[in-house]
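Example record

One chain of 396 residues, shown exactly as stored in the release files.
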Amino acid sequence: MAKRHYPRIYCTFVALLAIMMVLPAAQVHSFPPEDIDLDSFPEHKPMDGIADGFYSMKDIETEEVILLTARPLFPGNEYINQHNILYRVEKVEEGVGWARHLGGVNLSEPPESVLGLRSSLMGSVVMMDERAQDDEEERQITVAIYHSHGAEAYVPSDGDEFILEGGGILRVGERLAEALEESGVNVLFSTETHVPHDAGAYHRSRRTVEEFIKQGADVFLDLHRDAVPAEAYLGEVDGEKVVQVQFVVGQQNPNVAVIRQFAESMKAKIDQRYPGLVKGIFMARGNYNQDMSPLALLMEVGTHETTREGAEEAVVLYAESVRNYFLGPPEEAAREEGTDLERTAGRSILWIVTLLLIAVAVYLVISTRDLEELKAKVTRFFRGKMLDLTGKGEDE
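Predicted structure tokens for this chain:
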């Protein structure tokens, strides 16, 4: 009798084993955990699809399309477009955010120096690990680059929208890291994909940011690509077509004011050299780990429909502007270096002249019997020097 139950028991055991094996994966995909405040961290919400696969922001008066984005739109979201016109979303209906035109804005000015940047942006905010500010004013800025959605890819170049082992966005991040290092900026770069591409990715990438902070990073760039038609991210710089970059600032983080200032000042710096490279600044609902530093930006580089090569070219231009933003243009650095050398040379010559005068004075004192003889020698010395300089004889 018992033998007839063995198959049932065996099947039950196998089924339970299969459930146990699948459960951890299911738990990963069913993130976020219960302790996450989804109103404060909406980026952790399940990614619900919409009709077109993306959202549209439109002018409430003219119905002109202002922005296409894969990020959900909410009332209160703001957008500064390429031409520095500010819009604010008033209502969202069926995937369309209707926004009010609020006029032009004067972007925050770039800092005059790295020290000025720290004092203006970092001085009023405590870093996550509360580390003390560096006493060395000349300490180099370190930029950390990572990807919360490391599976994102560029279809024309990579063949698919997502690649679990690591999409084309990793190559774009690597190219940005290379370009920054070539220009003299310290870089930390992570190839962690934080897969799967689900609502828990930002929670997993948070650990990467924690590691960067421990390594002394100052600036944090989370690189993504958008998921809208290619035309939305195609611009023109110096008469050439380029893939554009967009900054995203999370509205649900305590650093939102300084991060917005950071984004605006960086756009202002880039606009000086490459107007059109930055398509805009999106103040979106979410945190995006920006509560961990006041110098953190999320960057969208192109879309899944643009080429990876175009995205790489865009970040090279961006890298040049970042280098200038933190360190100043190369020609200014060269001038400052030349000025330092001139100061050093001038000080050296002054020291040599001073030592020679001291040596002459000591010799005159030692070789002279009394004060009258010393005065006579000094008089003859300077009179002779004056005759040499003017070229005149004593009889003239």
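Notes: The chain has a mean pLDDT of 79.
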